[in-house]
Amino acid sequence: MIDIMLFLLVFFVMIALKMIPSSGLIGHLPTSATTESLPPTKVLIEIHQNGTLMVDEQVMNIESLKAKLRPLAQGKTVVTIAGAATVNMQQLAEVMDACRQSGISQIGLATRNAK
Questions:
Q1: Residue 32 lies in a domain
Q2: What is the pLDDT of residues 59-70, one digit of tens each?
Q3: Does residue 33 form part of some domain?
Q4: Average pLDDT of the segment spanning 84-102
């Protein structure tokens, strides 16, 4: 009986950890006074200060990002874009364009709550 309970505990812990989106290395998200909770993210796109894009801990360019997102656009995939506070608006617009060109319509921006 204890074995089954231990197995279930480990199973639920592993599932709960998998549901938490990876946070990567971005430490300074922009702030917003009107932040809202986003639906669970299926894809997290990170834009680093130097312009590097990362998805699932893989460095990508815009074209490879589009190729990765196209198969995911069939369902209701939620994409969250997280970027450092100093990310160029042009970089953000390019990533959002790539998402929309790939068929993704649910895009969220990760921010910290302004205190």
A1: yes
A2: 999 999 998 888
A3: yes
A4: 87
Classify residue 31: in a domain, yes or no. yes
Per the CB < 8 A criterion, the answer to whether 45 and 80 are in contact is yes
CATH number of the domain enclosing 101: 3.30.420.270
Judged by DSSP in three states, 43 sits in: strand
Q: Are 36 and 111 in contact (CB under 8 A)?
A: no
Q: What residue ranges in the chain does DSSP mark as E strands? A: 31-32, 43-47, 53-55, 58-60, 78-83, 106-109, 112-113
Can you tell me which residue has the tokens 């815009």?
62
pLDDT tens track for 23-46: 444 445 566 666 666 555 578 888
DSSP letter for 51, please: S
